[in-house]
Batch of 2 targets.
Target 1
Amino acid sequence: MSEAQIKHITTPLTADTIKNLRAGDVVRITGPVYTARDAAHKRMTEALAAGKPLPFDINGQVVYYVGPSPTKPGEVVGSAGPTTSGRMDKYTPALIEKGMRGMIGKGSRSKEVIDACVKYGAVYFVAVGGAAAVISQSIKGEEMIAYEDLGPEAIRRYEVEDFPAIVCIDAEGNDFYKVGIAKYRKE
């Protein structure tokens, strides 16, 4: 793939950026990305249900489903590969409704998540599982934000530069897993 075919995007995501992304687009993401897995998602949705604020302004933000390994001396983070996104599906529509505009993980998403992407204008990116050491090289800074007691599942703010990902579900509801399979069945 040539550099010209890669879309370079910045966070927080804007409506214009989101509408120009299509399932299957290869992207490089630069800017802040927040980390959270199922335990943090559960706490955030409980906060929303109780009328409490979230630990960060979620508007336009991208959440990376990751539980990084311990940091080695001289590194910003340890290996930081994606985790299975389906575990967040029961929490994700509420967060999209509140303004989250992107997610990074691996694996398929539920119909409810896809419907929320279409309704509110959000995208789901996949990162390559098994490439955690490579992905961690795109993380240039890290800050603890909330739920430190959750250890690797705490919410952190990463500053990323050219984070490699693929648009899996776009704001029109196209799912690259399904589109990609259909493309090869036709050939």
Note: The mean pLDDT is 91.
Target 2
Amino acid sequence: MEKHIQLPLTEELAKALHAGDTVYLSGTIYTSRDAGHKRMCEALARGEELPFDPTDATIYYVGPTPAKPGQVIGSAGPTTSGRMDAYAPTMMSVGARGMIGKGARLPEVVEAMKKYHGVYFGAIGGAGALLAKCIKKAELIAYEDLGAEALRRLEVEDMPLFVIIDSAGNNLYEMGREEYLKAHKE
């Protein structure tokens, strides 16, 4: 099913999304990769606040290239999500609900998604220039020393994604494999 989503990703909205849905996200998302996630989780462990309010937030696992003159941002393709698996449950425990990336997730992340009603969106790898066209505003908000992995706030419009894992733990990758095997058994 195709859905146009206006962020933030509330619990109610997350529960309405299903593995396999095509979505077009609009609103505020944040960027971070493994170095940024590590820093945020270390800050949380010390009892510090994050540089943004994680409540109902969606985090895009991306390290965008520098913007060329006249552009908001450079190429912004997804990073392999498994690199954030060690940090995703902690981020969800403080309110972050949506994750955008590519590739499979560990069972511990799926369990946290079920517990905190998270959603994992898949972006198409290799389509960074196309995805960047959906980004209307980019603002550095923390960790400038991390370069491409710095924490940014992005305003996006109709960013095309797929629901890979929904808040009930349904996984499009597994569903697709099962359908393929079933179709080729007959």
Note: The mean pLDDT is 94.
